Each structure stands twice: as structure tokens, then as C-alpha cells.
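On clarity, I found the account of how folds are encoded harder to follow than it need be. What matters is that the chain and its backbone geometry are given together, residue for residue. I therefore recommend that a typical entry be quoted early in the introduction. An entry of this sort, consisting of the sequence and the corresponding C-alpha cells, reads as follows:
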Amino acid sequence: MKRKKSIVFLIIVLHIIGIGFVKRLFLSKKPTDKVVLAQKRSHEKTTVKSDRVKREDLDFILSYVGNIKAKDEVFIFSKVGGKLSSYAAIEGEPVEKGQVIALIDRDETGLKYELAKVEAPIAGRVGMTLLDKGADVMAANTAKPTAVAIVLNMDEMIVRLAIREQDIPFIAKGFKAFLLVDAYPNEEFSGEISKVSEVVDTLTRTLPIEIVISNPQHRLKSGMFARIRIFAGKHANVLVIPADALVKEDNSDFVYVAEDSIAKKVRVRLGIRQDNKIEILEGLEENQRILVFGQQGLKDGAQVNVAE
């Protein structure tokens, strides 16, 4: 009898000890390294740099690209068919209106003709000769006439552009334009809008315009590629932020505002852009502190350490 009581007592003691061990194992378990790291990071502040929302004047610039050509530039055709006998002027040579550019041999079997003259229709320079001696020449009045040469006047150059429909309200004859070309990367050439069409192209939804550029030293060449900025006015005393402050998410624009070491995400509506400056139409107020570095990847309400 005593032995049975001892066994029962031993079982009870072991059961109590087992329960205590399980509690210590599962209920008093220390946090894992990952949990500790996550908790630590949740209290860390991200170091960021900031700037202020300011009021400034911004130039309203429309940017386009296009090819330069001489204002007066013509392909020259022969009035008669035959073979090219010779050129009477070389490329780059100045010519007067009516001056002979090339001679065409129109002889036929058994017949002898005087060489036909191809004359310059305008004064300028021979831009390019297009044929080799002896090449066949089709007359100007045929289905596929042969161009003999290009003559151009390089004193004024032009660029023809197709203006986006949404930009039409900001374009007018006389507006200034500024051009950059690869040949002179550190120099800007100025011109102005000389023609504005009154008809929109229904296929491209664009409006043709023409920009004229003075070229007295003939440094600009026909065929050069140009990056063009059209000065379309000025936005005075507008709210401006650096472009570095902008955060894009899901086709929307946001800025982080720093308030008491807390980063608050604010949706903004943008206006025009000039270089690294962006006009703000809605969402911010003057002198607000905005984040310009370190804000990418932040969450709304994150703690930040703002470095001046």
C-alpha cells in the first residue's frame, strides 16, 4: 500500500516538473535575432536631406528636336535629257542666279547638239553635286527627273517643327527659340518663330511651324540635327521645388514633408519644369521643409533624422 502511494506521489511530482519546463521553454522564450533586429530598426531614424519650398520665377520652355536646312534650298534639274558632260561650278562655290552649274550632252546617234546648260535658279552656293560625269540625266518634265545639284542660300537657316496639339496655345509668331547642335556643344544659336500654320494635321494632331535662324558666317549647315527650346513665356512668383524631391508612385507625384522628425507623404500637382526646378500647383505651401535625399523607399510616417 505504501509502495503504491509512493509511485503516485512520484508521478505527480514529475508532472509538475514537466509543466514548469514546458512553460519555460515556450512562454519564456527569448526573441529571435530577426525579431530583435526588426524591433531595433523600427526605432532607427533614416538620415535625409531637406530643402524649402520657395517662390521663384520660371521660364516656360517647350522642348523639341528637328533638322536644320537653308531657308532657300533647291534641287536643280535639267530641262533636257542626256548625259552629264561636266559641272561648271564645284561644291561650296558661290553662284549667282542664272549662272551655269552643269552641262548636259544630249547627242543622239547621227545627231550632234550643242551642250545644254543647267542654271542656278537662285543666288547662293553649290551645296552638293549629285552625279558622276557621263551619268544619265532625265529631264525635269519626265516622270522621274534626275536632280543634278543642290544650290542653297545659307545666310538664313530654318527648322520646321510639328507642334503637339496641347502646346498650340503657347506658340505664336515672333517667339524666341534657342538651338543646340553637336558641332558647337557649348554655344546656343538664337532664332524666332517665323511661321505658324492655321491647320492642324489630322493624322498626327500636330501644328506645323517654322523657326528662322540668322547664319551670317555659315557655321550652321543644312542637315544638322538640333535640340530646340522655345521660350513660351514666364510663370512669375510660383511655388518651386527641386526635381530631386519628387517621388513617383503609380503614375502619381508625391513629396515627403518633414514635420517634427516625421516624414509625411503628400500628393502634389505639377506645373512647368525649368532645368532642375519644378512648379507646384497644388499640395505644398511656401517654406515647407521637403526631403530631397534619402526619401526614396520611405513610408508615410517614418521617423527621419533631417541633416541640414
In short: The chain has two helices and 20 strands. The first helix runs from residue 2 to 27.
